[in-house]
Structure prediction request, 162 residues.
Amino acid sequence: MSNTTTAHVGKHDHTILVVHGPNLNMLGTREPDVYGTQTLDDINRMLAKVAERREVNLVTYQSNIEGDIITVIQQYASKSDGLIINPAGYTHTSVAIRDALVLYPEPIVEVHLSNIYNREDFRKDSLMSPVTTGTISGFGADSYRLALMWLAHILEHDDQGH
Ligand code: DQA
Prediction:
């Protein structure tokens, strides 16, 4: 698989998979007025800190290749307790990634750095949204942070309920 980023698999009971889609490896220099100046490494480091604080394991993955994104979702379907995905350009085109999400049994948060609803018309349609738990769009890197905090929150709550 291409462009695998650091995996922070650790000691906690729950694992969250974060999948970054195509061109997100270029963050920092890619349209900084739209996507901000933080690099993907910066975002992953921030998420790792949140994960540590909230006591969940974190696996982060980036690929520019549709099939690789599908494979990692399949691989983690039974090895993770929640998924955060920014499908990037595939948001608007990929029936195949959407189909993989349908097979993922745990909560899924779709995230976007930019607000996809106040940009070009073609970005307003997400093929993913109907099959995800919810979408966080428009808060820059904090879209990921909020997604992770919510997942950690419900996983913690889950434990208390059992
Ligand atoms: C994006 C929005 C998509 O429309 C775009 O193709 C991206 C990034 C976002 O994070 O704002 O690559 O998913």
